[in-house]
Amino acid sequence: MKQYDHEPTISELLDQFQQEDMEIPSFMPQIRIPIVGKIINNKIKAALRDTYVSLIIE
Questions:
Q1: How many Å apart are CA 57 and CA 8, to the nearest integer?
Q2: Cβ atoms 10, 58 nearer than 8 A
Q3: What is the pLDDT of residue 33?
Q4: What crossing angle do the helices spanning 10-19 and 34-57 adopt, rounded to 10°?
Q5: What share of the chain is helix, strand, coil (3-state, %, to 5)?
Q6: Which of 4, 13, 1 is closest to 56 using CA atoms?
Q7: CA–CA separation, 16 vs 2, rounded Å?
Q8: pLDDT tens, N- to C-terminus, the chain (58 residues)
Q9: Rounded-to-integer distance, Cα 24 and Cα 38, Å
Q10: Which one of 3, 42, 44, 56 has the minimum C-beta count within 10 Å?
Q11: CA distance 43 to 1
């Protein structure tokens, strides 16, 4: 987590959160095809991150 020399704003925290890597939930099965699995996992992580950020903002 990035360290700030001042009290971070919500905007700064959300920007930092969007840059960090999300973890795929353990209940989701792993995709066995490496290239396709990597693409799908990245899309799932982006969707989870965007959903979480939108829930925080609302």
A1: 15
A2: no
A3: 87
A4: 170
A5: 60, 0, 40
A6: 13
A7: 8
A8: 677 788 888 888 877 877 776 777 788 888 888 898 889 888 888 888 888 878 877 7
A9: 11
A10: 3
A11: 23
